[in-house]
Amino acid sequence: MSCGNPHDVDCVEVIRQVYLYLDGEIDDAHRVEVRQHLAECGPCLRQFDIEQEVKALVARCCGSDVAPDSLKQRLRAKLSEVKIDISTIEYRAE
Q1: Residue span of the structural domain in which 76 resides
Q2: Angle between helices 28-40 and 42-62 (to 10 degrees)
Q3: pLDDT digits (tens, 9 = 90+) for 36-84
Q4: Domain total for the chain?
Q5: Cα separation of 88 and 78, whole Å?
Q6: Does residue 49 lie in a domain region?
Q7: What is the pTM of this model?
Q8: I want to staple 26 with a disulfide (CB 3.0 to 4.6 A). Which of 20, 49, 60, 91 is the partner?
């Protein structure tokens, strides 16, 4: 994915790090890079918003229940497929 504008961190790399960012599992240096990139890149910010909504939806649906390992594995596999599909999309600057 690319918005067509130059960034310090590539759009594809930012999208790969979104869940780490959302889960607070990213180191400080990468957190700053992602935050800065999202502030200047509309397509990545929209994708971030989608991922944030998905995370919130899963949290609401699952509540405090712990998901079975089989479900976690299926979700990881599906998310990997989606990330691969997203990385092949090129965005045009709006």
Answers
A1: 11-87
A2: 120
A3: 999 989 989 998 998 888 888 888 877 666 777 888 888 888 877 765 5
A4: 1
A5: 16
A6: yes
A7: 0.58
A8: 20
